[in-house]
C-alpha cells in the first residue's frame, strides 16, 4: 500500500520519531526490543500523532548500537526477519506513518565480508573498497595507529590485526581523558591531504612491510569505505534501491560529510546526487535526510542533493534558550538566519529537520535537570516551528540519559512499573528509573497534565492544521526579552504563537484578528481584556483567527 504524494507531504511536515528498536518493545521475552514489538506499539505512536519513524540501524552487527553493519541486506536476528520488517512497514503505511532507515554507509564493520576479503590480500578484488596506506607514511605524518588514547592526534589509521579487531571502544571511552572530537576537519584535512601526495615516493620495502594499514574515522572496528571506487558507489546504490523495493520511504544518512577524505564538500554532494538519482528510479519521492553535524553554513550545501539535514545549530539554541530563560527575539533571528542560508544554498524545497536531542546527545530532561515545565516549553517551541520536528524516543515521557557511555542515552523505554510484559531489559538503566523521578508511560497517559499528554495535544494540533504544517514563520516583535512570539501563515490563514521563556508571568498583546485559543500550557493563561493575555512562566499559547 502506498501513500498519495499529498499524504507523503503531510507526513514529511508532521512529526518524526527516532527509535532505537533494541530499547523499545520486546515481543518474545528475551529482553531485547524487536520489530514485532515495535509493531505492537504502533497504536501508541499513532495516538501520539507520529507521521514518520526513523529506525536506528537494524542490520546484523556486533555492537549493541549496530552502527557497524555486517550485512546491509538483512535484519539483525535479535530484531526479527525480513518478513517482520515487511509487516511493520505495511502497518505503518496503513496508519499513514512513513518509515526511514538509518543508512550507515561511510564505513562497514571490520567483520563485513568486504573488509574480510579486502584485508586478506592487497591484490584482492575488494581491496579498493577501503582506504589503505603504509606505516612509513603514517609515521612520517605523525599519524599513529590506534595504540594511543589521544584520538585527536589523528588516530585514524589502524593496522589490521587483533588490536583493531578486538578494540574495546567502551573501555577506551572510559579511559580517555580528552573528549573525542571527530569534527576536527582542518586537522584531518591537512594531514590527509599529504597522504594523497607522492604515492610512489615510498620504498617498496616499507610498503611490503606495512600494507595493512587502513583508514577508520570513528572506530578501528568500522573501516571507512572508499567512495573513489565506483563499485562501492554501485553497491550502496543497489542497497538503497533494495530497501525502497521493500517499502521504506527514505533514509537517514549517517555521517554524510565524511564520505570523501579529506572531507570534501563537492565530491560528497556529487555522490549524494548520484545516490538520489539511483534511488529515484525506484521511488521518485524518496526522502533523504543527512546527518551533517556542523554549522548551518557548512551543512546547507548538502541541501542541493538532500531533502533535509538535521538542524544541530537550532537544537543547541532552543535548549539554551529554555535552559537559561533566553531572549525570544534573538532566537527567532537566529532561526531566520539559518532558514535564509538553507534557501540560498538549495535548489530544492527544503524540509528543515528540527529536533531537541538525539541518540548521540545527553537527553533533554537530563540537560533540563528534570524540570517538566521547561521540557514542555522546549516541546512547544519544537512542535510549532516549520519543518519536520523529530522526537527522540522517550523524550515525550521525559526519559533521562547521559554519558558515561552512549548506551545510557539509549536506555529501555519506561512503559509501566506494574505491567512488565514487553519491557526491554537488555540494559540495566542508570538514569531512566522511577527512583530518579521518571514517570512511566501508563501513569502519564492517565494524567491530563503529564508531559506525554502535552506532546500529544501539540502534535495533534500541528498535524490537523495546514498552517502549522506548511505555513511560513513571521516573527512578531516585542519589547519583553523572554517572549518568543511568531505567526505562522499559509494561504489566507494564520496562527499566532507566543512562548514565555522566563519564569515570571508576562502580558502578551494579541492582534485583533486572533481570538480563539487552540492551545494553552496552563489553563491560567486566558485572554483578559482588550486583546491581552497573561502568559504564565515557561508557558505557550496558540491562538487562531476568529
Ligand atoms: Ca525480543
UniProtKB/TrEMBL annotation:
Source species? Adineta ricciae
Return one GO MF term: alpha-amylase activity
Question: Source taxonomy lineage?
Answer: Eukaryota, Metazoa, Spiralia, Gnathifera, Rotifera
Q: Which family does it belong to?
A: Belongs to the glycosyl hydrolase 13 family.
Q: What GO biological process, any one, is recorded here?
A: oligosaccharide catabolic process
Q: Which keywords accompany this UniProt record? A: Glycosidase, Hydrolase
What protein is this chain from?
Glycosyl hydrolase family 13 catalytic domain-containing protein
Question: What's a Pfam family this protein contains?
Answer: SusG_C
Q: Which residues form the Glycosyl hydrolase family 13 catalytic domain?
A: 18-462
* Entry-linked InterPro entries: GH (IPR017853), GH13_cat_dom (IPR006047), O16G_dom_2 (IPR045857), SusG-like_C (IPR056300)
Amino acid at each position: 500500500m502506498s501513500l498519495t504524494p499529498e499524504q507523503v507531504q503531510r507526513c514529511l511536515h508532521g512529526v518524526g520519531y527516532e527509535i532505537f528498536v533494541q530499547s523499545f518493545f520486546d515481543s518474545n521475552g528475551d529482553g531485547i526490543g524487536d520489530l514485532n514489538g515495535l509493531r505492537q506499539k504502533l497504536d501508541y505512536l499513532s495516538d501520539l500523532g507520529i507521521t514518520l519513524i526513523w529506525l536506528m540501524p537494524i542490520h546484523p552487527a556486533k555492537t549493541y548500537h549496530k552502527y557497524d553493519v555486517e550485512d546491509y541486506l538483512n535484519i539483525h536476528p535479535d530484531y526479527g526477519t525480513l518478513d517482520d520488517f515487511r509487516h511493520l512497514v505495511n502497518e505503518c503505511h496503513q496508519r499513514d506513518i512513513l518509515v526511514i532507515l538509518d543508512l550507515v554507509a561511510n564505513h562497514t564493520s571490520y567483520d563485513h565480508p568486504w573488509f574480510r576479503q579486502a584485508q586478506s590480500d592487497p591484490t584482492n578484488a575488494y581491496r579498493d573498497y577501503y582506504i589503505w596506506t603504509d606505516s612509513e607514511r603514517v609515521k612520517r605524518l605523525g599519524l599513529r595507529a590506534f595504540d594511543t588514547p589521544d584520538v585527536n592526534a589523528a588516530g585514524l589509521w589502524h593496522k589490521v590485526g587483533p588490536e583493531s579487531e578486538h578494540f574495546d571502544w567502551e573501555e577506551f571511552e572510559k579511559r580517555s581523558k580528552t573528549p573525542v572530537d571527530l569534527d576536527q576537519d582542518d586537522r584531518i584535512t591537512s594531514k590527509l591531504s599529504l597522504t594523497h601526495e607522492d604515492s610512489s615516493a615510498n620504498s617498496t620495502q616499507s610498503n611490503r612491510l606495512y600494507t595493512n594499514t587502513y583508514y577508520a574515522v570513528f572506530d578501528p572496528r568500522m573501516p571507512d569505505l572508499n567512495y573513489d571506487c565506483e563499485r562501492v558507489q554501485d553497491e550502496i546504490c543497489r542497497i538503497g534501491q533494495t530497501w525502497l523495493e521493500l517499502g521504506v520511504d527514505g533514509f537517514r544518512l549517517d555521517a554524510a560529510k565524511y564520505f570523501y577524505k579529506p572531507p570534501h564538500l563537492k565530491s560528497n554532494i556529487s555522490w549524494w546526487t548520484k545516490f538520489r538519482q539511483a534511488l529515484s528510479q525506484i521511488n521518485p519521492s524518496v526522502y533523504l535526510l543527512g546527518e551533517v553535524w556542523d554549522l548551518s553554513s557548512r551543512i546547507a550545501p548538502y541541501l542541493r542533493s538532500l531533502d533535509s539535514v538535521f538542524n544541530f545549530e537550532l537544537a543547541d539554541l532552543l535548549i539554551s534558550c529554555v535552559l537559561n530563560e533566553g531572549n525570544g527575539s534573538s532566537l527567532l533571528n537566529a532561526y531566520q538566519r539559518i532558514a535564509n542560508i538553507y534557501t540560498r544554498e538549495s535548489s530544492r524545497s527544503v524540509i528543515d529537520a528540527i529536533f531537541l536531542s538525539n541518540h548521540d546527545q545527553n537527553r533533554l530532561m537530563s540537560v533540563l535537570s528534570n524540570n517538566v515545565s521547561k521540557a514542555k516549553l522546549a516541546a512547544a517551541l519544537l512542535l510549532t516551528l516549520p519543518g519536520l520536528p523529530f522526537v527522540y524516543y522517550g523524550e515525550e515521557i521525559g526519559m533521562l540519559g547521559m554519558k558515561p557511555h552512549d548506551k545510557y542515552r539509549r536506555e529501555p523505554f519506561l512503559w509501566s512499573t506494574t505491567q512488565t510484559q514487553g519491557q526491554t531489559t537488555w540494559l540495566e538503566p542508570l538514569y531512566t528509573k522511577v527512583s530518579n523521578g521518571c514517570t512511566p508511560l501508563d501513569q502519564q497517559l492517565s494524567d491530563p497534565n503529564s508531559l506525554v499528554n502535552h506532546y500529544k495535544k501539540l502534535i495533534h494540533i500541528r498535524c490537523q492544521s495546514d498552517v502549522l504544517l506548511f505555513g511560513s514563520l513571521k516573527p512578531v516583535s516585542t519589547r519583553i526579552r523572554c517572549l518568543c512570539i511568531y505567526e505562522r501563515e499559509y494561504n489566507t490563514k494564520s496562527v499566532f504563537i507566543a512562548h514565555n521563556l522566563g519564569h515570571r508571568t508576562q502580558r502578551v498583546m494579541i492582534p485583533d484578528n486572533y481570538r480563539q485559543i487552540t492551545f494553552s500550557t496552563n489553563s491560567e493563561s486566558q485572554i483578559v481584556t482588550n486583546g491581552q493575555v497573561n502568559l504564565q512562566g515557561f508557558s505557550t499559547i496558540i491562538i487562531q483567527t476568529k
